[in-house]
Automatic annotation (TrEMBL):
Record bears the keyword Transferase: yes
Name assigned to this protein: Putative colanic acid biosynthesis glycosyltransferase
Keywords on record: Transferase
GO MF terms, alphabetically ordered: transferase activity
InterPro entries: Glyco_trans_2-like, Glycosyltransf_2, Nucleotide-diphossugar_trans
Length: 254
């Protein structure tokens, strides 16, 4: 029976944390650990977490050095057992109460034990409107994230060998996925589920950080994926134009 480690990072997001908790608690599949790494929240989150009395909850509240430092703490705890780790931070939530069952069934029905499992997702804007997003083929990893990180499951034995790198402030998750999949057989070790697994709230994603992240993605392609400077820069330009076009269409209401 497949076991899951659900890692939730939180800092001063009590409303989002409660939403994530409700989503986790509603899952029909019960073989999971909920690992909460709280950064010593001062908005009542730490006190609220202290009231959680669930056998599956493993909660710590202490200062950290930022998001990816906290995610590394969660990674280490999550990957310490057998199974798979999912990063579902405060404010993130499952698409519905059957997601873990669906993922477990897919893993157990696979011809071999997959290292990396991912699927489709929805984007949710400030007005609550949902936009479906299809996961990309893993062969297109060079173009960017294959899916939302809340729709990705990492096999723990392999996950113990990677970390979120602190030299990438915005794209450490993309870098971790690239390093996680290096040397893996995409046909044997990767399992794509053609079904929505999570809803990602895009509220608060700033325009300036999107463009800064594109620069970090370019570094990852050059330094980690070992693409040529020309190839890396060309992909950066394409992503820059694409992002700018999307923002322009949004501003025009198209």
């Amino acid at each position: 029976m497949t076991q899951f480690s659900i890692v939730t990072i939180n800092w001063n997001n009590l409303a989002g944390l409660k939403q994530t908790y409700q989503s986790v608690a509603a899952q029909t599949y019960r073989n999971f650990r909920w690992i909460v790494v709280d950064g010593a929240s001062t908005d009542g989150g730490a006190e609220w977490l202290a009231t959680i009395d669930e056998p599956y909850a493993e909660i710590t509240s202490e200062r950290d050095k930022g998001l990816y430092d906290a995610m590394n703490k969660g990674l280490i705890k999550g990957s310490a057992t057998e199974g798979y780790t999912l990063f579902l931070n405060s404010g993130d939530f499952f698409y519905d109460e059957h997601v873990l069952q669906k993922v477990a069934d897919a893993i157990e029905q696979a011809p071999g034990k997959p290292r990396y499992v991912y699927g489709d997702y929805y984007l949710q804007n400030a007005e609550g409107r949902l936009t479906p997003q299809k996961a990309k083929k893993i062969e297109h990893l060079v173009l960017g994230m294959p899916s939302s990180h809340q729709a990705m499951y990492f096999e723990n034995e392999r996950l113990r060998n990677v970390r979120f790198r602190d030299d990438f402030k915005l794209s450490a998750d993309y870098c971790m996925i690239v390093e996680f999949l290096q040397g893996q057989d995409h046909q044997r070790d990767v399992l794509k589920i053609d079904s929505p697994l999570c809803i990602f709230d895009t509220t608060g994603v700033s325009t300036s950080r999107r463009f800064d992240a594109l620069k970090e993605d370019m570094r990852i392609r050059r330094e980690v994926m070992k693409l040529s400077p020309l190839h890396s820069i060309s992909l950066y330009v394409l992503h820059y134009v694409h992002t700018h076009s999307k923002l322009l269409k949004a501003a025009l209401g198209k």
